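User: For a benchmark we're assembling, each entry needs the component sequences followed by a predicted structure for the full assembly. Here are entry 17's components. Please fill in the structure.
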Amino acid sequence: MDKMIRKAGVFEIFNHWVLAISCFILALTGYAFLFHLEQMTGIFGSFAQMKVIHNYAGIVFTGSLVISIFFYLPESLHMTGDDLKWLSMLGGYLSKHPHVPPMGKLNTGQKLAYLGLVVSGIAIAVSGFVIWLMPGVKKYILLSHLAHNIAFDYIVFAVAAHIYLATLANPGTLRIMLSGTVPLEWARKKSPKWVKEMGY
Amino acid sequence: MARKALLISPELCIGCRGCQTACKGWNQLPAEKTKNTGSFENPADLTPIVFNKIRYVEVPSEKDPVRWLFVSQRCMHCDDAGCMKICPAPGALYKTKEGAVAFNKEKCIGCKLCVAGCPFNVPRYDAKDKISKCNLCEDRIAAGLEPACSKTCPTGAIKYGERDSLIGGSKKAGFAKVYGDTDLGGLGSIYAFKDSPKLYGMEENPQIPESIVFWHKVLKPLAYWGVGGAVAASLLHYVVIGPHKDDEEVKKDG
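Assistant: Structure for entry 17:
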């Protein structure tokens, strides 16, 4: 059997799924609010109930997002010349036989997507709390409503792309968020710089 | 059914506030405790238990030292209503067949977004955090009656009727413009002003906040076209290019 190498810890994996599930609940109820999806009451009860669920799932999402910062932000901010090269060829995703530069623990696309998530996540969380806790202050509500919806559009788009890239587009990636371990050889292909850093 | 409206003529109003008490009587609203602010205007603003009120505007001038304008205020019953646009709870706000913006407290989720969506600062919230405002006496109209305020008005300063004929009538009476004729798709509370709307305490060109229009026209469609696009692009990518091959990466690094 292949030698396995640990890429994600148990708490990191747990936090990922807390973030994912809260995000999913928030998005579902969010879509219900946006498009008046009465069918959603079948899952969540009434719209009043949905508002409560949306608000409290927001607290979980915010907490989980803050925790995720410790796992991914330093690495995401660490950009090198290889990242520029990676970006200039769009990570090789438009080619059948890509020559992508060697990547570290996260590739450039993952770094950028995460930075986008942090920015939009903070925006959607702060604006959400303003709408929840400062109702009636028209100036703040209008600004928050706008920010909340721009961030929402980014997040639902990014999550759709994230799910594809982490499953079908890159077979073998999902297990990082399940068992946390990957075969050493696989990691060498995907994250050669990181594997070296780990001393293999 | 033809759209109904209230035509308000401040110059006919004598400031008796019969409309305020009639509204309270019909809608069973208790009195609002207020303070004397040195004006006859009372209460000072709409509240969860004040659906309509008369604004007292004093416009003294050399020629006319005691010019007093009495402007009856309530929900404007916009055709294109900002409150309804932004409301996330289906059925909480709805249009009656006469074109009034009515509400269902049981469907209201208390988010107060309608407050931000309203160009006229009308929606208020009761102690249970439910919307509370004029509904053009929806229940009276359903019973073949007219709204309490217009019914009780002794001078014809508040007239209820078919919107088109009210507008036609006031144009015939010499009003070049009726306030609310075309604003926000046409208001359900329209005004025959003899002077500029500003003087009566009304905004010249009331509009739904731009950010809400942008949200409605761009951000909302993006919420499904964006995700749909991402899913479609993913499928297309999978079929045309396929999963990422990274054999080359190994060679390069090795």
